[in-house]
User: Which sequence fits this backbone?
């Protein structure tokens, strides 16, 4: 009866030694590889620092102009442009300019990295069912595992700082772009692909001439989601030494500063809305060709 | 009557089989031994697409392949440029076996020798009309300037000048299919595969497109393989017509042969509502002694076109000549009307 009352499990000593041996071997791995990895990521760190300093050193009116210009180039809407510039003015007026620039720097670099890695992975997934079956569970883990769990090995390997923060943000933010690139390519109309085949298009001509362009609206939805998720990681990244709007939020939590927390939180929300509206209207503009003019 | 078995066959299809399913090669011997399509599906869970089809497609003519939906006609046409791999059989184009071609040879076949027009158009929605028409040329590796010059020429030929910079979604169905036709013609391929190309269009536009195709064919002399489920279209376009049912060939011949000597009830049913006066020609009715004097009609004249002259003729009977102008007999009005009725 004893067997049914308690779940048969490893003994306490066995579990402890198992954990010790895993921790030990990872520590050994850390000792022998940490420096190599640090050197590997060093160019990234330098770029990140350079970009952050650039944003901080540039006079604020120029930054406002550039932001306005980018918003207009993306959305082609004066309303969105004016609202974005106004949001930045308010953020600056309430003393959050420097933190916002730091956050902007890490979000931009993280998004760029996610796109550079995510789109090719998504394309690979779309081209083979086996690849899709292999990568999908990895993406599931990346999206659902609590971020603190993967912060542990990242911090053990790379310590506290910008690069581990960046990696943590990327792990969390990359799945949507991979998934939506894959989906977008798989959803391309079979009749159009058959036509490309019938005219003798090579796989490369099909990919770049037909599949990727027709998947762009979905790929863009993925970029949009990736940016949103990267912003959601700002506070957690600040726990391992990333400068930006997350730091005051963290301070507000530990000291119960309501106003400080809300103000910086709202600044993150403002950034998210600006990114979202600009990238979505841009994505919609890419689909302009789909609309007919009175014909079915 | 057109001789289709001669050496002028551009495309030869020999004993072609296509079975869809998990292990087509395993059930192939059963099908060859005569297992029916329904039994194959019930007992082995395989679908019979094409069943022992042989067809010689003459050069520079329009070969129509007709059948109802599910008869395997669209499957058959996709074998010619190997968009679908056959289970067994042979396909020769200009004597070259399509099935043994390497990937790059096949690519060249599709780029230079056989182009295709689709029922659902298959245009690239993100590219302008001129880029769509130039698509085959760009795939061939032609320069942009050359491609767009030739694309403009073909856009003009199908009557779409002025629409070069529109997107496909801005055009009506009929106009989109003209783009599809121009795209296929622009590659200068000798073989044109048309898969129910006009079936998605409404009847008036369909008739227009048929006229455009016939007009272009008068000049270009392509080898055209035209799939349709519409008998009127088949009779109007086809120099030669093949009729499929359940993936098997039921009958092939020119329009008149099919109307005058239908192979079975399936085809008799098919042709019962057509206007026979627009298919049957005088030559097939000519008999007996020709009357002295009076007009002589060519044997290729359609019955419908000959009626008014027959009514006015003395004794309502006129002499009929063959291709060379030699009188081969005579036709009277009564016989002509009889032939049009039954």
Assistant:
């Amino acid at each position: 009866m004893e067997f049914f009352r308690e779940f048969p499990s490893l003994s306490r000593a066995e579990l402890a030694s198992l954990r010790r041996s895993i921790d030990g071997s990872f520590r050994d791995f850390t000792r022998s590889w940490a420096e190599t990895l640090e050197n590997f990521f060093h160019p990234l760190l330098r770029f990140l620092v350079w970009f952050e300093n650039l944003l901080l050193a540039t006079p604020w009116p120029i930054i406002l102009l550039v932001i306005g210009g980018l918003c207009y180039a993306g959305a082609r809407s004066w309303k969105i442009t004016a609202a974005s510039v106004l949001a930045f003015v308010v953020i600056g007026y309430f003393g959050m300019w420097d933190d916002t620039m730091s956050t902007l720097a890490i979000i931009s670099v993280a998004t760029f990295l996610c796109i550079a890695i995510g789109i090719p992975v998504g394309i690979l997934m779309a081209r083979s069912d086996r690849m899709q079956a292999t990568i999908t569970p990895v993406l599931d883990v990346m999206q659902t595992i609590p971020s603190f769990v993967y912060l542990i090995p990242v911090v053990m390997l790379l310590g506290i700082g910008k690069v581990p923060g960046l990696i943590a943000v990327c792990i969390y933010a990359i799945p949507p772009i991979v998934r939506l690139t894959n989906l977008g390519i798989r959803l391309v109309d079979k009749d159009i692909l058959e036509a490309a085949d019938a005219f003798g298009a090579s796989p490369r001509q099909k990919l770049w001439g037909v599949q990727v362009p027709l998947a762009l609206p979905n790929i863009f939805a993925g970029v949009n989601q990736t940016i949103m998720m990267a912003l959601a990681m700002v506070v957690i990244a600040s726990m391992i030494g990333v400068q930006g709007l997350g730091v005051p939020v963290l301070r507000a939590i530990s000291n119960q500063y309501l106003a400080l927390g809300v103000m910086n939180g709202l600044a993150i929300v403002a950034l998210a809305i600006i990114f979202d509206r600009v990238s979505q209207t841009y994505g919609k503009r890419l689909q302009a060709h789909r609309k007919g003019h009175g014909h079915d | 009557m057109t001789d289709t078995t001669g050496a002028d066959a551009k495309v030869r299809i020999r004993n072609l089989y296509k079975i869809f399913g998990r292990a087509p090669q395993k059930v192939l011997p059963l099908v060859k031994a005569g297992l029916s399509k329904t039994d194959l599906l019930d007992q082995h869970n395989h679908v019979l697409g094409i069943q022992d089809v042989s067809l010689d497609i003459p050069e520079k003519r329009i070969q129509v392949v007709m059948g109802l939906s599910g008869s395997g006609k669209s499957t058959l046409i996709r074998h010619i440029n190997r968009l679908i791999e056959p289970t067994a059989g042979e396909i020769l184009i200009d004597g070259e076996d399509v099935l043994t071609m390497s990937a790059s040879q096949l690519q060249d076949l599709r780029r230079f020798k056989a182009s295709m027009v689709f029922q659902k158009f298959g245009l690239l929605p993100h590219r302008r009309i001129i880029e769509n028409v130039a698509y085959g040329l760009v795939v061939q590796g032609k320069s942009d300037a050359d491609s767009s010059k030739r694309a403009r020429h073909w856009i003009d030929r199908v009557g779409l000048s002025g629409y070069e910079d529109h997107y496909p979604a801005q055009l009506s169905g009929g106009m989109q299919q003209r783009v599809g036709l121009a795209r296929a013609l622009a590659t200068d391929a000798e073989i044109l595969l048309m898969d129910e190309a006009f079936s998605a269009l409404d009847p008036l536009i369909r008739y227009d497109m048929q006229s455009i195709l016939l007009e272009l064919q008068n000049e270009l002399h392509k080898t055209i393989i035209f799939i349709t489920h519409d008998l009127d279209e088949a009779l109007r376009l086809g120099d030669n017509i093949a009729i499929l049912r359940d993936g098997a060939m039921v009958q092939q011949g020119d329009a008149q042969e099919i109307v005058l000597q239908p192979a079975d009830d399936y085809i008799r049913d098919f042709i019962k509502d057509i206007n026979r006066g627009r298919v049957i020609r005088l030559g097939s009715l000519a008999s007996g002694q020709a009357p002295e004097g009076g007009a002589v009609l060519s044997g290729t004249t359609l019955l419908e076109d000959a009626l008014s002259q027959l009514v006015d003729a003395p004794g309502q009977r006129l002499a009929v000549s063959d291709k060379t102008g030699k009188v081969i007999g005579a036709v009277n009005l009564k016989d002509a009307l009889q032939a049009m009725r039954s």
Q: What stands out?
A: Chain A has a mean pLDDT of 90.
